[in-house]
Amino acid sequence: MRRTILAALAACAAVMISGQAQAQQPAVPAPPVAVPDQMPFDIPYGNSITADRAAEIVKVVIAEATKSPRNWKLAITVVDTHGELVYFHKMDNTQLGSVTISQNKARTSARLRRPTQIFSNAMQAPAGVYIATLDSPPPTASPGGFPLIEGGKIIGAVGCSGATGDQDAVACKAGAETVK
Predict the structure, then answer these.
(1) What is the pTM of this model?
(2) Is 46 a domain residue?
(3) Which residue among 13, 38, 141, 159 has its CA within the 20 to 30 Å range from the CA of 51?
(4) What is the pLDDT of residues 79-92, one digit of tens each?
């Protein structure tokens, strides 16, 4: 019995010692990250969208948000190439906080030349915390903001808020896709 206990204790000690030895091994460095030759999101700015054109985009967004059985209540913002307001529409009974959020989504998308979903995805990783320091105001990291690209140039952006982020994105993307 005594031998069995001593053997078990010796085995446990050996496991603990080998575990500590492995824990002190130097970490294997991560392979270097491939650096792309081309700059991502290098979309040139064009002439800013007009209010009449923005109104057409908003109509498409509203049509998408109200397709049966949907009843998404959205604040919809269209901005110019600088991220400044061109057109705004708040559907009846849209929550008030969504007004500013839709404007921030559109501004983020225009100024940083990419959909806001990209920032939302990045914020899910621990390294994504740096995003909050990129701009003043910081980028809005939520789905529902899309650049408006015509002839390969950004003419503005559209942002939607009021439903879930994914619903905002579906409605807003429908409007953005009308610009070619």
Answers:
(1) 0.78
(2) no
(3) 141
(4) 999 999 999 999 99
Q: How far apart are alpha carbons 170 and 103 in whole angstroms?
A: 17
Number of structural domains found in the chain: 1
Q: How confident is residue 5, by pLDDT bands cut at 50, 70 and 90?
A: low
Give kind and range of the element (H or E) at residue 52. Answer: helix 51-65
Find tokens 């492995």 and name the residue. Answer: 22
- Is residue 11 assigned to a domain? no
Parent domain of 164 = 51-176
Residue 39 lies in a domain: no
CA distance 174 to 68: 15
DSSP string covering 76-143, please?
Answer: EEEE-TTS-EEEEEE-TT--THHHHHHHHHHHHHHHHTS-THHHHHHHTSGGGGGGGGSSSSPP--SS
Residue 114 has pLDDT above 70, yes or no: yes
